Protein 1
Amino acid sequence: MDKAEAIVAALGGADNIIEIEPCATRLRTEVRDGGAVDDAALKAAGAYGVMRSGTVVQVVVGPEADTLASDIEDILD
Amino acid sequence: MTRVLSPVPGRVVGLAGVPDPVFAQAMVGPGTAVDPARGPGAAAAPVAGTIVKLHPHAYVVVDAEGHGVLVHLGIDTVQLKGAGFELLAAEGDRVEAGQPVVAWDPAAIEAGGRSPVCAVVALDAGADALSGVREDGDVERGAELFAWS
């Protein structure tokens, strides 16, 4: 499983992800069920940290956020 | 040893002074931050090297030693989708330290309700890899913020 696949899985799978948007340092995602998000698995996938506010989950991945987001979009399509 | 220079003139506030936990908790690396002087200006390359990432509101320059320095212009500025930022260089360009990379106006960012504070981060550096880190005081653009061994 590559990094993008691992992050999708840790976010509860493709069906749980409503939106994913990269910023310079993080992926900003909106999920259906925040409870399906596994912070430990996100960190195991290489995230530096995870910040949550309800169904909005920010996964801190550093400046590769834009390339990771496009890899994740490919998985979601 | 990489000397990392301030991309903007202003007042150094340290990473702890950035109103965003990713920077304040040094999640992507240690460094410092500068509250920029208000008014039109240009943010400069903090080191000589190659621009490996260039967003309107943030960029990463990697130097010859492989040290990547992130400059992030303001907080939540990704939401502006480039409005108010003008790119003066391109991704992949080689730049000199102090060369202008993005033109912007911190006063306009602030007027839009966002903090214009600029985080300058040593990506993936250990906390003890930096020395002489400025945490306060006024700086000119191009003044040294820290050294990275």
Protein 2
Amino acid sequence: MTAALTIDGLKLDFYGVHVLRGVDFTVPAGSFTGLIGPNGAGKSTLFNAVSGLYRPKAGSVRLGQAETTGLPPEKLVAAGLVRSFQLARGFPKLSVFQHLMLYGAGQPGENLLAAMLRSAAARRREQELTERAFGIARRLKLDHVLDNPVTALSGGQKKLVEIGRALMADPKILLLDEPMAGVNPSLTEQIADHLVALNRDGLTICLIEHDMALIKRLCAPVIVMAEGKTLTQGSFDEVASDIRVQEAYLGRRH
Amino acid sequence: MLSYVIFTLTLCGIYALLALSLNLIWGGVGLVNLGLAGFFAVGAYASAIATGAGAPVLIGWGAALVVGAVVGLVVTFATLRLRDDYLAIVTLGFAEVIRLVALNERWLTKGSDGISGIKAPLKAELGLQGFSIFYLGLVTLIVLVVWALLRRLDLSPYGRTMKAIREDQQLAAFAGKTVLRFKLQAFALSAAIAALSGALYAHFQSYISPDHFQPLITIYIFLAVTAGGVGRPSGAVLGAYLVVIFLEATRFATEWLPGLQPVQIAAMREMMIGVALILVLHLRPQGIMPERIPKAPRQPTPSA
């Protein structure tokens, strides 16, 4: 199986505090990989280091075959790596529709002159993106709130917008940081169903989540991180029965 | 009286260009540029010096645009790591540096004497009255063209990205946008517009000196954009016209107050302007023409 994302010996520290101390794992192409670990294990920091927010101190990140260590976020997005945030983030004064459109890549209308002259290519691309945005909005049941500013949405809808706009960027791999946190149980189910469907359509997903029942149901393989390192990986049942994983979560027996 | 009205409306147009410039950079990518008066001065001096050396007026205006854009790029590169208050302080300092250079580099700017006899295009052919009307028409036309272009920009994908950068530049990068490119282009374009406004001012007054480019101009333009509505070109233009007309109207209002010394009347005007700003911010904090969220186009009915 080919790897969508390969992380090799990744290290990162903040002023001497070692947060990532050598993370190694691969996300197989087409998989729905789960990333779990106790609080403070470095999962979100790993996402930040992989997605270009932080520059790793050592180690490498490869996206497919391409070396992408330390690239800025916009280059990584262009290469097909898109992420969501643990606390749903948005642009307060933009509508849901604008959020979706913003993530559409290759818009010639983002060129200063083309924008002022309203070039035909820009209008054509805008039309294509509009149709895609409508499609994604319908799929995620956001089509009735398209004109609302994101600040007027419920917590669950904000999470859906995060997923929707990430899809607009046409990612090869999607890094999701707790997309179900703080969402009511029925919407959690909906989001899970959306993710499963997207994964079936060929999208590689790497998910950070604390809800073990959900991880068990959705993810294979499951990667366990603890104290800034990869602890183990395998199927959910394999890692759940691993004594080291239990120790990482519950503490060591003395 | 007619020439006074024409003078005021021309000044309105010049301030409207400054307001459009500020709205692009502040309402667009969210950079607080308190150095507007500096770019205004750069354009005025660039055109005055170029035409003083024998260049035709149009070349002078072109020079103002180019010099303004280049200075804008230099300022952006110098302030890449700064945002918000820190950027505001540095740009305010920049405007003062420009004014002090104009005051002290006598070989270039004639210092505090100022540059006089700046060419007024077609003044000899049109006569005094004809020239005023012609110039008013020209300035108004330029305001219309710049407004139309910036409005298009505002509603384009480029404008959408600028506003995303204004709201959260880090998240904009995660949406795949090259934030730096947008900031540089917007700042350069904004500076060029402010410089063009300065050039129009110089040839309108036919005399400029460092005294004309006090930081107070920047404050008036912030007042105009705030009152008109940040983030909307039409609001910026409306705000500029209202501010200039209000500033001029206070001249007459103070005549009604008996028993004041001229110095007190001048102070009274400043007070009225301050009160007006507070009222606008209190009654309509989002401005007279607030920013709109564009609606999504009509949704096609799903096939099947």
Protein 3
Amino acid sequence: MNTTPQASKDDVLHMFSAESNPNADTLARYLRRYPQYREALIDLSIELFTALKFDEVPAEKVPSDKSKQAWSKFQSLLSPTDPASTTPLPMDNPLSNLSDERFRELASELNVNRLFLSRLRDCSIQVATIPQRFLSIVAQELTVSVEGLTSALEAPPVVASGLRHKASGKPGAGDKITFEEALTGSALSEAQQAALREMKDE
Amino acid sequence: MVIPLKKTTQEGESYHRRTEIEQALSALDGLAPDQLVERLTCTQQAVPFEVLVYFLRHTELELGSEHLGPIFCTFYGRLEAALRKVVSDAWIDLAVTIREELSERIVEMIAKDRDSQEEKMYYWEVNFNHALSNLCTDVLRKHGPARETDPLINTRPLTEESDSGEEVSHEADIAAAEFINPNPSKIDDVAFRLRLMDAINELPEDERRAVGLRWQGMPIESQDPEVETIAKVLECTERTVRNRLKRAIEKLRVMLQAEELQ
């Protein structure tokens, strides 16, 4: 850093603390060049001289359990966009981008009707109540990972379109129904409902 | 390219890290992530703390959890070991609590810094020892004993500051020598060093500066007008410097002995 004798106090103090060997000679040089910051430089030199030397402590060979716990804590504090974050970025909902034709086909392949599939698409069903086997089949059909699909379906429910919640007044964005409620309330045939119930996790 | 510090001088030039840190970072720049992890986690040739902080702070380096995790664990393990030595169970009550608070604060600071455009932790890449020393002092003060028991409060100056007293002559130098050139095993004792640092910080400003400068090796006086001396730097006579040193040394002795007796 090429500071002038008119450099600011902060800049001069920074430069002094970034000296590799801030001893009495270094201090004398700074005091001659920056007499206006005499007291601050003296105080900083004493602080630096008396600072503890943490680098002298040898490193441990094996990461401790505490290190691993601290890493988990650290990751949990990171923003979801951080490259080292645990939380994967929520993927776009793979059901939202389907053409009408593909949507109909998918409903047929899954042996459900379009109302049921719309509820799934609109994140109206509590993901925790959806059988893993069913999620796996949907993910496979959409060629996405189960984790990615799960993460996308955990988003708040979409209220704007489709039929839902006929019975209990206006739907709110916070409402989600269970998988069982979706089965019984989506005009699925008895056979379709039975097939889906068989997939339920034990 | 090594990411420069965002903080700049009033002329707009980036602040620099210490030369050896810049060199270490340049040597690591461009390594593949696996090689980088291998180098940073190596215990034989441990890199300075500042280097680890650099890789932990900057999201621009795009290190994913697979690579950042081992670097973090190395950093944390070394931090734990360093803090165990400084904040030892043997001489500080609540040592475990204090160490945990220190390490938690550092972890949170780094995590926040990764998500921020501000440059709050830049100094940890410049002078880690100083930055951590300051944080330790803050936390130790918070948990430290009540200051009403401070032996300094009831200490009377042994000699009034005067430019005429003969009694101060070279006694101060002899006393100072005991503190300034103590037994190497004692000065390497982190606990002793921390107590001494704390005791020096408790001294009145003029005495603290005299002792601090003497401790760094600055002469009290010199026949050579080119040489910076404590008397010149503190703008007083050499006799005043000796008086200040004498008073300071006596107080330090009282404080350190009082602590050792506890």
